[in-house]
């Protein structure tokens, strides 16, 4: 009975972890620039003392769906969407460089350009972009150049402040960190800017999560979890029956 119980227990545990992945995707169905997490399960042998005669189910996050999300027009000057492949370079909480597709930008009271998560947007020399306040207007061009019209200056006087750092690494070289930012696997050095990445002004890229597919996957995992629980109950009943037979004999 122990083999059946162990298989059912490990399967139920991994089903719960899989549901967490899909639930997180559903929770971010409206998050700007979000990339859905992928999940799969596989069987693994249990190694230890003696012969490896047991297997268990292991759920793993295989990566992310890098398909582009739907792009909507907002008409807002500080809303930008990356056209095609590419990433915005931002600074994480530890001061390191990370990459994001979230283009809903703002300027804080100190004049620092940041995204909707409060992460500072990086420019030339891998340093945060500072906007010299006060300004009448901020414009971001297709190549990421940030220009402003200082307060009190004529409307045709544009001053270049900085240029947003845009990078284009191979998607297979990226992983999603715990803060939601993407980083290069095994690379601690900042990437070089890529001039081929272009922006669309007044646009935002939405999440690439397919809500219907995620709901279907959650329902399938829930039914599989219920099946594993029934198997555990069956194993318990069979164990009780065996014990009864032993007492009778």
From TrEMBL:
Principal location listed in the UniProt entry: other
Source organism, top-level taxon: Bacteria
Domain Flagellar basal-body/hook protein C-terminal, first and last residues per copy: 201-245
Pfam family, one: Flg_bbr_C
Record-linked NCBIfam families: FlgEFG_subfam, flgF, PRK12640.1
Family: Belongs to the flagella basal body rod proteins family.
Full protein name: Flagellar basal-body rod protein FlgF
GN (gene name): flgF
